Amino acid sequence: MNLFDVYPLNNIEITKASGSTVWDANGQAYLDLYGGHAVISIGHTHPHYVERLTTQLNKVGFYSNSVLIPLQVELAEKLGKVSGKKDYHLFLCNSGAEANENALKLASFYNGRKKVIAFKGAFHGRTSLAVSATDNPKIIAPVNETDNIVFLPHNDEAALSAAFTKYGSEICAVIIEGIQGVGGIKEASVSFLQQIRALCDQYNAVYIADSVQCGYGRTGLFYSHDYAGVEADVYTMAKGMGNGFPVAGISISPKFKPWHGMLGTTFGGNHLACAAALAVLEIMDQDQLMQNAEKVGSYLIEELKKIEGVKEVRGRGLMIGIELPESLPNVKKDLLFKHHIFTGEAKPNVIRLLPALNLNKEQADHFLNEFKIALKG
Ligand SMILES: Cc1ncc(COP(=O)(O)O)c(C=O)c1O
Predict the structure, then answer these.
(1) What percent of the chain has pLDDT over 90?
(2) How far does residue 126's CA lie from ligand 1's centre (Å)?
(3) How far is the CA of 130 from the centre of ligand 1 (A)?
């Protein structure tokens, strides 16, 4: 049997990893500023993480949501504290798409409506409704097509007002990333998020903050949406939550009342997933990783803005987009194969930095030096 060939692969096999360094099968070291797509939050093979997972695996790795799992309660308490949403409730699942799917479903159960507002450039995942709310017709299969999603231009306050005037109480939810990731590191403006909050309140629609990529402390705040000073009704999270162990969740405002069977999953919130998520939050808290993300990220952004040849630098904390001119199409590839630095990308020519939140200044400086050389070709 062969693999179903859906991923364009770099010809590199990673055999060892530690912190923000990974090594290939030939022993070549790479600086990892991609974190396997914003997933590595506390660094590869962090000793506390490895220890907590190993200890848990030796006790019990998995049991379903038919028994008491005190680790889930511990995780909810810790997440409430670190995220500043102590009165919210946690539902655990397994991936970013599943988190968004559940958030949209919860919204629809709540107000009985169907229409969802999403934005140009958005990426919310590949499951049925999440992919319908994703602005990429190529990955929407005919069976996923629906009239329930209304796409609006990003950060366009007049268009948002007009949509609420037109659809009014048909609108179930507004789903928005605090900073679009796949869309090229585009931040939702403070006034736009405030307007979403106000209109959702006015029409009893649900404000869903997709924090799958921009959340979990990456920008210096736990949820990047909270820069706007207003709270969402539901925050979805995944990627950084388990530092590589598949775990995701939704943080739900107390206004939603659960009933048995309303949401569910076999694997979500299993013992190992909770141990991984707890290890991440413990390290984030203990080592003040949100503060570090803010500090090292601001430094990187400031320095990148000084570099000649860069079209634009966008983002916050350690979620950074470097837009390059069309005349420099090979920088990402060169960074990887000549300078041994992993980065992400977005169309048309944006380099995305999504490193672990404990990236240090020396590593940032190493990148800046190599990047300047790579720009010269
Ligand atoms: C903002 C956002 N939402 C949702 C997802 C989907 O997450 P997953 O791939 O874990 O399903 C992603 C993945 O890149 C994302 O960036």
Answers:
(1) 99
(2) 8
(3) 9
Pocket (CB within 6 angstroms of ligand 1): 95-97, 100, 123-125, 177, 181-182, 210, 212-213, 238
**Band of residue 377 on the pLDDT scale cut at 50, 70, 90:** confident
| Per-residue pLDDT at 263 exceeds 90 | yes
Q: How far is 223 from 227, CA to CA, in rounded Å?
A: 8
Q: What is the mean pLDDT of residues 249-268?
A: 98
Give, for ligand 1, the residue of 41, 212, 234, 347 to mutate: max count of ligand atoms closer than 8 Å to Cβ. 212
Give the whole-angstrom CA distance, residue 125 versus residue 141.
13
- Looking at the CA of residue 248, tell me the nearest atom of ligand 1: 10
Nearest atom in ligand 1 to 125's CA:
6
- The sign of the CA dihedral 226, 232, 236, 242 is positive
Structure letter (DSSP) for residue 259: -
Please name the helix (run of DSSP H) or strand (run of DSSP E) that holds residue 57, with its range, or none: helix 47-59
Neighbours of 58 (CB within 10 A): 8
Q: Give the distance (Å) from ligand 1 centre to CA of residue 140.
A: 15
At residue 188, what are phi and psi to the nearest 5 degrees?
-75, 135
pLDDT in tens, 48-88: 999 999 999 999 999 999 999 999 999 999 999 999 999 99
- CA–CA distance, 85 with 230 (Å, rounded to integer): 12
